[in-house]
Each structure stands twice: as C-alpha cells, then as structure tokens.
Amino acid sequence: SSLKYIFVTRDGEAIVPQKLTQVEVKGEILTTIGDYAFEGFENLNSVSFSSGVTVIGQYAFAGCSSLKEVGTKGEFNISSITEIGSYAFAGCVSIPKSLDLSKVMVFGQKVFDNSGLEKVVLSGEAEDFGSAKAFENLASLKEARLYSTLAFDAVVNGTGITASDIEEERT
Fold first, then answer.
1. What value does the mean pLDDT take over residues 31-49?
2. What is the Rg, in whole angstroms, of the alpha carbon atoms belonging to the chain?
3. 61 with 86: CB under 8 angstroms?
4. Is 20 left (phi over 0), alpha (psi -120 to 50) or beta?
C-alpha cells in the first residue's frame, strides 16, 4: 500500500501513520475531523480535540483498531459531535461498547461497522440516520434507547435488536 501521510514533530522527527499512537489537536480553530483523516492508523489509541469539533467525516477513524480515546477529556467523549460520516468508526474494536450519541443529529451509513458496539442512546431530534442504515448489519448492537421512529428504523436494520425486543420493553 502507498504511504498517504507523514507527520513531523516539533523536533523535526518524521512519524509514519503506522507508528503514530496519540494525536492532540490544540486550539479552537478545528471544527471538523476530515474524511479519511486517520483511516488505517492501526496503532492510534488517542485523539484529543476541543469541544469546537462538531463533525467527524466519513472513514475518519476507520480501521483504527487500537483507538480507545476520542474527544475532549482523555476518554471516549464525543459530546460536541453533531454529525458523524459513513464508516467513521468502522473496525474500531477498542472503543467503548456503550455510547451516548444523543447530540448527534446526522449519521452516515454503517458508522460503527464491525466495531463491537453493543448499546447506544439516540436523540429524538436526530434528522438523518443514513437512510436507516447508520447501524446496518451491526449484529453486536443489543440495546438502544430510542426517542423517534427514525431511530427505531435505524436500529432494527440488521442489528442484534429486533422489533419484538423493543415491543417487549414498551409493555
């Protein structure tokens, strides 16, 4: 495969993505983690950024199998994020198994594909769940707190949750 990125430290040392383990973005200027920004960085375990970041682009962290911490507090905290692109966390098997995504208003398709995500909290105000494919074929997803029909459609599309599971919880 071809090398897409090289990072240079303040000391002038070149770091190739395969060896990069931690990224800290300082300042408030950054608002988006761009499409494919860290795709395939298998050793990356932490990316911290300010609460000014509101968008995570498609495939931004896809294939980052060691990724445990994303966001503002040295943990997996994406409370400032309102939009997550398709496959953004695909293959991120080290992220938490339970996520509060209640601030996210727009989801791409298969956002957490092959991540092992088991539980989500979704907003009733979310506008788009990737044409009901945000969690498609995410068999590991077993529990969801839903507040809208759009969210319902998104979590019963090939996940470990069925319509009858949700009906049972309502009674």
1. 90
2. 16
3. no
4. beta
